[in-house]
Amino acid sequence: MKLRLPFDVESLTAVMTWLFVTVSALVLMLQNDRFSSAIVALVAFLYVTYIVLWLAASRKLAFSRDNPTRIGLILLQVLVILGIYWLVPFTFSAILAVLTCTLLPFILPFRVALFLSPFFALPMALIFTFHWQMQGAWLSAALFWTFNVFALVMINTTLKEREAKESLSEAHQELVATQSLLTAATQQSERIRIARDIHDLLGHHLTALAIKLQVASRISDGDAKTQIDECHQLAKLLLSDVREAVSEIREKSSIDVEHALKAIAAATPQLKVDLTIDDNLEIQHVSTAETILRCVQETITNTLKHSNASKLTVALDTDSADCLRLTLHDNGVHTTEHFQAGNGITGMRERVYAQKGHIDARKTLHGFTTLIELPLTASSGTL
Length: 383
Description:
This protein has 383 residues and is α+β, with helices and mostly antiparallel strands.
């Protein structure tokens, strides 16, 4: 069983850095008689406030108004850092500004973040030069600015690699779904072709044979007539068996959606996908099967991108004799009930409506649920 930590390595590293800076500053201030206990307590409060703001701004769970909220939290961090600069005469406190800079690429374009990076170092140079009368403050500020730039470049590179990995994962899922669907459609087409050939060729010849045997029976007598009648009955029985076999092949030429869904789930190791599929479910149309696979694939992508869910439940059954029901539910925790549909949900709706189906997607405090209903009897993609 894989251990799931309640925090990520990046946050842990940031907290450790903050803790080292905080402890160092407080210890040095306590050893210096020029700082009163009240000032030290105020500084400790500012340091604690900073890390609380940083953790809130860097959390993976989205806010109801995500970008404005995170920008507001970053501005509050900057105000807290200015207060620390004013009360603490140690330049290493500028490490906090570096930590704040690491948040910018997540909510702002890289060029904008790079443009803002000098303004995170400028207050340090001004305060330590004019308030603390410290020589070399501008040089220290310049050095910390280079740290800011380095952090921005590294974070931006990491984000690009993550986007490329996600894009590759989506392409892999789409390839797996397409391959599974193509295999199932090819098998269905081959079964129907075999049934058609049996019906057209063997059925035709057996029918002709039965007619000729019937004619032969009428113009024969004695033992010959008896033998011909028996052959006629055998021909009719064989023709009946052929028709039943053809009907059975056609009835069982449904598309194996379960195999395709399992292939998609196996191609998504970062998310646990639970599949529940009705044993009696039969899907005859390729377009219906494709709509199901694409909707499941898009839901997996949305869950990985926009939710902190660890599990996705996929249930596929028949709501009635002519209606198929697909239920998708993740266990993510969301802050609001209402949401604005993005390209993923919009694309799912277009696919479902093209099949004359219905889709209902909603966000709740217990996760995200999508209910899709598709007709089984009518489809635009019949074979």
